[in-house]
Amino acid sequence: MNDLDHERYMRRAIELAGGVQDLPFGALIVDRDTGTILAEGWNKTAVNPTWHGEIDAINSLASSAVGFEGKSLVLYTTAEPCPMCQGAILWTGIETVVFGTSIRSLQRLGWRQIDILAEEVVRRSPAWKCTVIGGVLERECDALFEGAMSRRDQPI
Question: Which of 40, 54, 80, 95 is catalytic?
C-alpha cells in the first residue's frame, strides 16, 4: 500500500461533514495509487434512512464514469462504519477503511448505534479482505458529534 496522508483525507471528510452539522457523517473514497479523491459523500438520511455518508460516497463512485478496482481504494469516514455500511464497503471490494470517531464513542455520546464494530463485520466475512484503521483525527471527529448532540433534545 502506498503511504497516504490519512490526516489530509480525514480533514476533507470533516469538511464534508460540516455541511450536515446535525448528522456529521462525511466520507470520501481515494485511489491509493494516485492519491486522487474519486468520490465524496455525506449523510442524507433525511431523504432515505439508509443513505449514510459511506453509502453516498459508494453510490457516487458507482455512478461516475470512473472505472475502479476496489483493492486500490481507501474509504475515509468521520465515524466508524455501521454494519450496513461496512457490508457495502466489503461488497464494493474496498480493502482499507480509515475512520475518526468509533462506534463506542458515538454510543457514549448518546448516538444510537448497532453494537457491531466494523472489525467484527470484517472478521465474520472471510471471503473479503479489509483493513480497518481507527482514531485518525479522533478528537476533531468527536467534536463534530458532540456538537451535533448538544444541538439535539433526544438521542439519534
Answer: 54
**Percent of the chain scored above 70 by pLDDT?**
96
Q: Would you say the pTM of this structure is higher than 0.90?
A: yes
Q: Which tens digits make up the pLDDT trace of 60-71?
A: 999 997 777 888
Name residues whose C-beta falls within 8 Å of residue 15's C-beta, 6 or more positions apart in sequence. 26
Beta strands at 73-79 and 26-31: parallel, antiparallel or unpaired: antiparallel
pLDDT band at 1 (very low <50, low <70, confident <90, very high): very low
DSSP-derived secondary structure for 32-97: TTT--EEEEEE--TTT-TT--HHHHHHHHHHHSS----GGGEEEEEEEPPPHHHHHHHHHHT--EE
- 15 a catalytic residue: no
